[in-house]
Specification:
The protein is mainly alpha-helical. The chain is built from 9 helices and 6 strands; from the N terminus they run E-E-H-H-H-E-E-H-H-H-E-H-E-H-H. It is about 45% helix and about 10% strand.
Length: about 200
């Protein structure tokens, strides 16, 4: 989701959602690992792939350069210890899996990429507040924790946004729980009861 917020208020008509999330990254990593000879099929094994994604995957700043290294065979592999004690070497799968967030066509998805969703949401907001929205982008959610996500997003948004806009992306370390923290703060406000809908 990309949710524009101005002066503490959400702009509902400008919200944009993409059917692309962390599970898609995990499934793509699972497929990439299968291609390299590592089969993870069961539900428990899918959890291992998810842990792998969270621990060793990264977003490539320039994916084409990483692909060149992979083709030449000079790409550095990383070891990952499985629960049974075996160690596997993971190579280019580390950056190919999270790249689906920036290039969904890789997995055959027609939905917009993360950067396109973000720019579309800002473009739907009123013209006079767009500059402020570009200057205050906040990341939230587990998929944004992949190493290099913020840097790549900055590059991609700069490419799509109007040239005269200053773009600033904030990535707080506790962003996995940012949504929950925001909800708990809102629930503690005195005005919260006036906006709640009861069963009656």
């Amino acid at each position: 989701h990309a949710v524009p917020v101005y002066e503490g208020y959400c702009i509902p008509h400008a919200m944009v959602r993409a059917n692309l999330a962390g599970r898609d990254v995990t499934e793509h990593l699972q497929m990439q690992l299968r291609k390299s000879g590592h089969n993870f099929i069961t539900g428990a094994e899918f959890e291992i792939v998810r842990q792998m994604k969270e621990q060793i995957c990264y977003v490539a700043y320039v994916p084409s350069k990483e692909e060149e290294l992979a083709e030449k065979g000079t790409f550095d592999t990383t070891s990952f210890k499985l629960p049974d004690g075996n160690v596997i070497a993971v190579g280019p799968e580390r950056f190919r899996a999270p790249d689906v967030l920036f290039n969904p066509a890789v997995i055959g998805s027609e939905c917009d990429s993360v950067q396109q969703v973000l720019v579309n949401a800002i473009s739907r907001a009123d013209t006079d507040i767009r500059r402020g929205l570009y200057a205050s982008i906040h990341l939230a959610g587990g998929s944004t924790l992949v190493a290099g996500f913020g840097d790549r997003l900055m590059t991609e948004v700069r490419r799509l946004a109007p040239k005269d806009n200053k773009i600033k992306i904030r990535a707080p370390p506790e962003r996995t729980y940012t949504t929950w923290l925001g909800g708990s703060i809102m629930a503690s406000l005195a005005a919260f009861k006036t906006v709640c809908v009861s069963k009656q």
